[in-house]
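User: Hello, can you help with two protein structures?

Assistant: Certainly.
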Amino acid sequence: MWAERTSQISLSGIREIFTLTRPDAINLGLGQPDFDTPVHIKEAAKKALDAGYTSYTPNLGFPELIDAIAHYYEQYGVHAGQEQIICTSGGSEALHLAFEALVNPGDEVILPDPGFVAYSPLTRVAGGVPVSARVKAEDGFKLQPNTVAECITEKTKVLIVNSPANPTGAVQRYDEIKGFVELAEDHDFYIVSDEVYDKLLYEGEHVSPASFDSERVIVVNSVSKTYAMTGWRLGYAIAPAALVEEMLKVHQYIQACAPSISQKAAYAALIGPQDSVRSMVKEFKTRRSVVMEHLNEIAECVTPEGAFYVFPRFATSDTSLDLTKKLAQGGVIVVPGSAFGRFGEGHVRISFAASRQDIDRAFLTIKEEVSAR
């Protein structure tokens, strides 16, 4: 009865856990900052409302916002013209547009496993075939070029790179990113680089595949994580102009344009003061230390270098889903590793986008549950 493209996918494993929780649960499953959107950004949105910016915008986005995005990416050595940028309703739409414009039925998409929950379903919706490239704890959960090379076939169309990564917090190194670009050039496929956590770094530096001046790179980003604007739904993609034109065809019919007020707010975020970003990253780094201190007593865990997640493995016979259900019943929300791919089994994702007090309280329950296994 239903379309095959939707019958092949399921609802997010993250949402499944949220439905099991009690109202007073401590939420360490969140994939968003627990900070408010900075005041100057909200004020810009209010001014836009008062000025009457409540209509459709140019399909690609307001020109001044596109210029601000281009300027933002110059810090990473990426030089993009107006015709290479499209504003979208969140980074999720940018990912969807990229897959729709690139992937034909039967094309293979190499994705990191464990990796963000949307990659595989979006691949299937586009008619593609997900191919897991395992990221290993012994490599710091960094995707390795030799692992990608082993996955390449004549059907390979896209490689997804995510740095800093969800759910592991891994940050790819320069030589690894360079290796991915060289593989894309040599084997005639595209890289979709998910960079939504680019500013949430504690070690290393952010390297964008687009900095290698390749025509085979599509950057996906948003203001959601960096500026605590997840609900504003404003993302963007940077890609070769010819590909942006193909993405625009889909965008016109499913969305028309990104939200007008959110575009004005995003412009204020990108060109305005960045103090709030630095403060948020500083606090996240402190929370990371608190979480790792707890985890070092009870689990194996790679210290994340970016984002706001840890991905520990506990010594328990429970599946990751069973463990998260028991923790949910005890009042703590975390996400099963299996939600992020078959190689995520045995792990859970814990977000430290919560207060230090809540983190400490949650780990009382986690330690009690784990020690009882």
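That covers the first. Now for the second protein you mentioned:
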Amino acid sequence: MNTRVNRLFEKAEAHDLDSIVLANATEPMLDMTFFYVTRLGAGGLFEGSFAICNPPDKVEVITSILEEESAKHGDFPVHAFKVREERKEMLADSLKDAKRIGVNARELTYAHLLYLKEIRPDAEFIDISKAVAAARLVKDGEEIEATRVACRIASEAIVEVRDFIKPGVKETEVAAELCYIMQKKGAAGPSFDTIVAFQENAAEPHYRAGERKLADGEFVLIDFGALYNRYVSDITRTMFMGKASEKQKKIYQTVLDAQQKALDVIKAGIKGADAHNAAAGHIDSTEFKGMMTHGLGHSIGLNVHDGSGLSPAVDVTLEEGMIFTVEPGIYIPGYGGVRIEDDIAVTKDGYDMLTTAPKDLVEL
């Protein structure tokens, strides 16, 4: 029994579907829900592949002979095509009895939608992307453990990379070294473009590592993650090159306290906005009012931004098994910034801390 397929159909129950089709285009336009239902972790790119789900819990995969061996690692029927015309015939056969077909419109290219309509012009294609997001939001044990490994790799790597960070080093060099360390520890690669931001660059939450060289007394903000079996981690640590100033120490402690305020309220049953307000409220009670310019966190899983968030803009009630980042920050344009980010799995009475890197103030 494929419990994940079953979960998709349960969340999409109101649509009364005959089948669900998950389609991959070319990288990076791959629907990660394809990997969610197939559990194909380590191998295979699966461009141009389809997963056909049938109620209550069946899945079959149509893929090229290039990916046939990788697909055989899954527990489902595999149909391998040599030429595209064979793929069309396989899809037509798999969907021949389906009248109402669910598609994940958020991850489906327009070209693929037209392709499916050409194959089944008499079928109704229904957007079930909200149901897909809801199904993937609560992780099963296998997903939590994969994320835990990704978090362990990242947590160990950020400690190890400290010895590499010295005056004169470039942001890009630190980013490259960190990725190298993570892959030595078992990561398939980084889970997103690594952010390394020195001094004033640390005031940009989504800055990308550049050519800036590090000097004494500067902020060193590193936001990164490890990719393991397609699951991601996302962690941020902020350090200081040499001795931190009193202002830098005050900013750091304020962010650290704000994160703890949020963690203190997180548990199953609360609104995600409540956790955000706990952190932002603390920051706004200090001289740094208004300097946390983003939501407290976001869900992670097969994607770095996996469909939900801890923010007043997102209406989500926390459930056991949801995994979120908790990442308050203070950003002062032209000066610098601090962000402290960890990944947690929501539990009945609180949370399971998945990232383990120390959060004490580090002066390099």
